[in-house]
Structures are given as structure tokens and as C-alpha cells.
Amino acid sequence: MVVVGHIARAHGNRGQVIVHPVTDFPDERFKPGSILFTRRREAIEPVTIESVRFHRGRPILGLAGVETMNAAEELAGTELRIETASLQPLPAGSYYHHDLMRCVVETAQGQRIGKVSAVEGTGEGGRLVVSGPGGEVLIPLVEGICVSIDIAAGRIVIDPPEGLLDANVAKRQRF
After folding, report:
1. Which pLDDT score, from 0 to 100, does residue 136 have?
2. Residues 6+ positions from 109 with CB-CB distance below 8 Å
3. Is the pLDDT of residue 168 over 70?
4. How far from the centroid of its chain's Cα atoms is residue 139's Cα?
5. How close are the terminal C-alpha atoms of the chain, in Å?
6. Which CATH superfamily is domain 97-174 in?
């Protein structure tokens, strides 16, 4: 399953929740009638969206069976997921975050940097968090730096500008 949002908190007294979307397709993912999945009490539970409206880019959802503010507050911090099979194909050069996870990152000269442990941001502002022997390294997820992404092989080749990898090391040593 893939995370598409996080329930931030309750909204109002009718059981609605505010969601931080983690998807490039919030209008597609958060529609009345859509079924999402949560993990609560060590069980995967389906939830159906009954109503939705957007406020400042965030969906405010009414979920079936969540009728009170107290019930909505219990959901705060819960991830909202969809099944991987329901994902839409992306255009060439675009990737789902979960596809990038655990890819090995190396330079064009073959120097291994580490494995992707997280992806922060979306689109042009995105960056890879790469965990390696020296700690975390932040790599901008842009075409000029990530010169080759091969999801099937689990490999990302980078051509970092001078100082990028050193800046990450220097930052770690300061703290």
C-alpha cells in the first residue's frame, strides 16, 4: 500500500478531519465514495470518504462511521493509504516516492553514496534522503543531478555539482 495522506486533526464537531495530502493527485484520491485504508490497533481498516472540500489546498474529509469530534480526534496522526494496484501510470521521467525508496545511489564514476531512505517534497522541490556509511546525504531530485533513474534495477546515478556531497558532510560535522 502507498501513503496518500496523513490525518492532521479533527475539524469542527461533526467528525470531519483535516488531511495533509501526500499525493500529486489530491482531487483524484480524495473524492466522495473513495475507499482508503488506515492502520489502527495493528489492523488494516477500510474507510469510505462521504464528503470532501478543500481549504488552502488540504482536504477536509467526512468519513463513514466518524460522526463526532472525539471519533475524529482519535484518527489524528493516522496514515491514509491506497492499494498499489490502484495507482495510475506516470509520465516518463516521473516516479512514485515508494519506487525510489531503497534504490542504491552512486556517482557516474561508481562511488556508492548509499540507499534512498526517504523522499522529501514533490516536483522540482523534491530531494532524496540517502543513508550511507557517512550518515544522511540530501540530493536534489532534479534532472541535472540525477542523471539516470532505473527503478527496475534499483539504481540512481548522480552527477553532483562540486561541493554538494562535501556540504552534506560539513553540515553533519557541525552538529
Report:
1. 87
2. none
3. no
4. 16
5. 36
6. PRC-barrel domain (2.30.30.240)
As annotated, the residues of the chain forming the CATH 2.30.30.240 domain(s) are: 97-174
CB-based contact 38:47 (threshold 8 Å): yes
User: 10 Å Cβ neighbour count for 87?
Assistant: 15
Query: Mind listing the pLDDT tens digit for each residue in 76-110?
Result: 999 999 988 888 788 787 888 888 988 999 999 99
pLDDT tens for 130-163 read 998 878 889 998 888 999 999 999 999 999 888 8
Closest CA to 140 of 128, 156, 122, 158: 128
Percentages helix, strand, coil for the chain (3-state, rounded to 5) are: 15, 45, 40
Given a contact cutoff of 8 angstroms between Cβ atoms, the answer to whether 95 and 149 are in contact is: yes
Classify domain 2-86 at the CATH class level.
mainly beta
Please, are residues 104 and 117 in contact by the beta-carbon 8 Å criterion?
A: no
